[in-house]
Design goal:
three-stranded mixed sheet, 5 helices
Amino acid sequence: MSRVIKRDGSLQDFSVLKIWGSIKRAAAEADLPDLRVRQIVAEVSRGPMELETGGSTVRSRDIREMILGRLDRTAPSVAEAWRAYDIRRR
């Protein structure tokens, strides 16, 4: 199982469920129908899911950039909602 280096430097086991949850929340905020949300989650989470069994260490920032890059191509409104959430959170 891969490990994720968080912003604060701590290590955490990789969790594809966290990725799915983040994509789902952003897609819901973009006001997309459930079927489209499921399609986006399936499309976008493929790359990060490969990390789960890779046994490597990856930065959370790199995972975020991978997901946002895929969202920019497949669902720009979801990428925009994700970035808007990031801004509000800070």
